[in-house]
Each structure stands twice: as structure tokens, then as C-alpha cells.
Amino acid sequence: MARHRQRHVSGWPAYLIAPVAIVAVILVKTASSMFRLKTTEDLTQNDVVSCLEDFIGGRGGKWDWDDFCCIPITDPTLDAIRQEAALVRLPLDEIGKAELRALLARARSITYAMAGMGRKQTLASQQATAPLGPRPARSRPATTCRIRITSCWPLPARDTT
Q1: Which pTM was predicted?
Q2: Which of 7, 24, 76, 102 registers the highest number of CB atoms within 10 A of its CB?
């Protein structure tokens, strides 16, 4: 009979490691709150535009859209676009694609003053965009947060009597 080869810590080593691990977690949490460690991503306008284009075109990686929607962006203008994009209902339908195209046009049209040059540049002036036309009416009311709860097992039937 073959021996079980999976390693685990038990007994007195576990009693020695557990307090050290707990203290380490407390120190990391305290240091992050004391030193205000960065919790946002430094995405540029080009990064946001390429992420939206990739998702609309179906070229994004497996977790790219999740990373884009879940990690706040340092620039508040781009973060507002990220928050609105996160509200688009998935799987993506034509209304969702139209909403993302409108956000894409908005991301392209953001104007930033170039440092030391005294002139303004827009990404839209660098990249030709197709006209979007009017934005379709929303089929659902705007919300600030959507939570979809799914179950991994069948729920018991409710007794309504």
C-alpha cells in the first residue's frame, strides 16, 4: 500500500507557525494603513482605450476585463469610465456594446494638457473613430452596484403553504 505523500503541518510545528503568521498579517495590515500603500492602478488613456477595444472586439485575455473593472484607476476621469463600464451587463449584447462604444469615444476624447508644451492633445485626434450615432435607450435603470448571486448546488424548494 502506497504512503500518502501530501505534506501538511500538524502538531507542535503548527503551534509555532500559527502565531508567527498571525503577527505577520497584523504587521502587513498596519504598515499598509500607516504608509498609505497604493491601491490604484496607474493606467493611461491609451491603456483604457485598448482595454475597451479589446473587450468589444473579443480579443482580451481571460481575466483582463475583470482586472479592468475591479482595480481602481488613479486618474478620476478614467476611473469614472471604468466604473460605468463595470455596470454593463454581461454577456455582452448589442446594447452593452453600444454603451461600451460610447465609453470608448469618451475615453478617446479626454483632453490632457501636455506638460511644458502649452498645447492640448487628444487621443481622438490621433486615432480616427467611426461615428457612433445616437446612444440607444437603456433597457434597465442605472444602478451603482450590481451583485449577481449564483448557487453551486440546487436550493431546496420553498413551502408556500
Answers
A1: 0.53
A2: 102
